[in-house]
Write a structure and sequence with these properties.
The protein is an alpha+beta fold. The protein has helices spanning about 1-20, 30-40, 55-65, 90-105, 135-145, 180-185, 190-195; strands at about 50, 75-80, 85, 110-120, 120-130, 150-155, 160-165.
Length: about 200
């Protein structure tokens, strides 16, 4: 992980230098995206606090509604009003969804549906309307494994993925970020994974 952190610092400096001089990002952002995926796929210590899957995804969808160059309703969310605590890193949850959405955008998906609902002591997460692309399946599997659940991949008219994440009831829950917090950094996960499909960040 130390080597990954050092490489991230080098790439971030190069991206910042290009932004200051008005140069195109070139291969910097794709390399940062690959590095971020590698970091998310590395198993870490179990999180000390649960993530509110419903709240995290609601904040992510709100942020994407502000930044994506897509008509309203392209990403439809079906989320419960109350919290759904699961024992995963919020960054991994976001990365798994965002990586899949990048594939959907690149593939020209007309619409995507994100569902997260409680069912039998677990949060059942589904992303429907797009086929498997890139590292999305690996991130989805890592997400399910970290929570102690399992993932499946869907084909045909219901193309996408689903994961059952056991509920982490009784554990302290992390505060949910505001949508603006997810976009504040030009190298935040939404900007990094959906680079090329969103409005340009402020320099």
């Amino acid at each position: 992980m130390a080597d990954l952190a050092a490489l991230r610092a080098v790439l971030a400096r190069e991206a910042a230098r290009r932004a200051r001089t008005g140069q195109l990002p070139g291969t910097v952002l794709p390399r940062l995206r690959l590095l971020t995926t590698a970091e998310l796929l590395c198993p870490g210590a179990p999180p000390a606090r649960a993530a509110d899957a419903a709240g995290e995804l609601a904040a992510l969808c709100a942020a994407l509604g502000q930044m994506l160059r897509r008509p309203a309703g392209w990403l439809a969310a079906d989320l419960p009003p109350g919290p759904l605590p699961v024992l995963v890193r919020p960054a991994l949850l976001h990365g798994a969804v965002l990586c899949w959405l990048r594939g959907a955008l690149a593939g020209g998906a007309a619409a995507v549906r994100l569902c997260c609902q409680p069912a039998g002591g677990a949060a059942v997460l589904q992303l429907l309307g797009c086929g498997m692309a890139g590292d999305a399946a690996a991130l989805w599997r890592r997400l399910a494994a970290e929570a102690g659940g399992h993932a499946v991949f869907l084909a045909g008219r219901t193309a996408g993925a689903a994961a059952r994440l056991p509920a982490a009831d009784g554990l302290p829950v992390r505060p949910v970020p505001a949508p603006a917090d997810l976009l504040a950094d030009r190298y935040s996960l939404p900007r990094l994974y959906l680079d090329g499909f969103c409005a340009e960040p402020e320099r």
